Amino acid sequence: MPWLQVRLAITPEQAETYEDALLEVGAVSVTFMDAEDQPIFEPDLNTTPLWSNTHLLALFEADAEREAVFAHLQLLTGAELPEHHAEVIEDQDWERSWMDNFHPMRFGQRLWIVPSWHAAPEPGAVNLLLDPGLAFGTGTHPTTALCLEWLDGQDLKDTQVLDFGCGSGILAIAALLLGARRAVGTDIDVQALEASRDNAGRNGVAEADFELYLPEHMPAQQADVLVANILAGPLVSLAPQLSGLVRPGGLLALSGILAEQGQEVAAAYAADFDLDPIAEREGWVRISGRRR
User: Fold this and answer.
1) To the nearest 5 percent, what fractions of the chain are helix, strand and coil?
2) How far apart are CA 61 and CA 248, in angstroms?
3) How many Cβ atoms sit within 10 Å of the Cβ of residue 22?
4) pLDDT band at residue 237, thresholds of 50, 70 and 90?
5) pLDDT at 137
6) Domain range annotation of the chain
7) Residue 38: what pLDDT?
8) What count of Cα atoms within 13 Å lies in the side-chain half-sphere of residue 36?
9) Rounded to two decimals, what is the model's pTM?
10) CA-to-CA distance for 231 and 105, rounded, in angstroms?
11) Which of 114, 239, 243, 282 has the highest CB neighbour number within 10 Å of its CB?
12) Domain covering 3-91: architecture
């Protein structure tokens, strides 16, 4: 069925007032949306910051009258409405629409990420079955792509890999499919560990080959290859720990780093690693190197 969508241009200070008012007048959902492509990275703990210019989108059932909605909002808030707009949007098969937007993606020379509903373009290649768009990392973000391309370019035969902040497990699973002997994944989110376990099973990876741990339970052992696609702040603060988890001569790849943060992160690892030139894609970077 169709829906009435109401859009309000608000400031962060108005957010709670108008969210409550929209729900009070019958909105079935309320969503905050960036009005100016203003990214927010690494917010403070226990905060949910909004953009300085935010659009508040609310959906009402189709029989709702837009003028009545606006009139009730003005009464509830006791103020003139900010810039506002309403339109009728037609319902559609959102799942089908979402699936149609994703296709197999190639990373490097050998590796493909293949959505579960697609046939592999190159059956003889290294095909990792994963559904792009799901949580925790799927290859569609530049940082994941940078890490996957780096893994594809390494000789991983018989190596032990540590995926620090494993999310969906995409990097560890890719490493195993590319020849690694064993992988360990760790994440602070239990749901991420479950996603990693599910994706490993989908790709025929045995549980014994891919062990998953919360950080406090991770075994103290060095890896031949460590990948960490998290955020710049943690990568800097955890540099002594992460460096110590790589054996001498082992490899390191870090991402989740904005281009302007690259030098700071690189400096945190320069004492222990011979670093490669920083790789950049769409404003994000990858830092890699070999442990001295």
Assistant:
1) 30, 30, 40
2) 62
3) 24
4) very high
5) 58
6) 3-91, 101-291
7) 44
8) 10
9) 0.72
10) 24
11) 114
12) 2-Layer Sandwich (3.30)
